[in-house]
Amino acid sequence: MVSGVPVVNTGGMQKQTQKSGAQLLFASNMRRLRLAKNLTQENVAEGAGLHPNYVSSVERGERNISIGNIERIACALGVPMTELLAEPEKQRKSRSALP
Fold first, then answer.
1. Which of 4, 6, 14, 74 has the fewest CB atoms lying closer than 10 Å?
2. In a 3-state reduction of DSSP, which class is residue 73?
3. At 40, is the secondary structure helix, strand, or coil?
4. In Å, how far are 5, 13, 41, 58, 64 from 85, measured between CA atoms?
5. Which residues, other chains included, contact 99 with Cβ-Cβ below 8 Å and sequence gap of 6+?
């Protein structure tokens, strides 16, 4: 571990595997929307023209996804891109209640 962050051994070099808050937010929204529409990751991958393994890793928050692929996934889910990037309503309300 480097400063409490998991590290992957890459043949002498160390690479941090820290997931950003934005990646995790996107992943959470993607999964929530996919399940609400009763779609599989394979359905989303096919609709977006992406590999199912890639879609799975995005949904786990393991990929720093490009804006182009965000657009493709949003189209496959039938939602605006902003819906994949927005904080859920519950989180927004609890933050606004803080002093």
1. 4
2. helix
3. coil
4. 24, 32, 18, 13, 13
5. none
64-69, long-range: CB < 8 A, 24+ apart: 64/20, 64/23, 65/23, 65/26
Q: What is the pLDDT along the chain (99 residues), one digit of tens a residue?
A: 444 444 444 454 444 457 889 999 999 999 999 999 999 999 999 999 999 999 999 999 999 999 999 999 999 999 999 999 999 876 555 455 555
Question: Could you state, in order of their start, the residue ranges of all structural domains in the chain?
Answer: 19-87
Q: Where are the beta strands (DSSP E) in 1-99?
A: 7-9, 14-16
Q: Any idea which residue has 């039938």 for tokens?
A: 78
Tell me if the pTM is above 0.90.
no
Which residues have C-beta within 8 Å of that of residue 44, sequence separation ≥ 6? 30, 34, 50, 55, 73, 76, 77
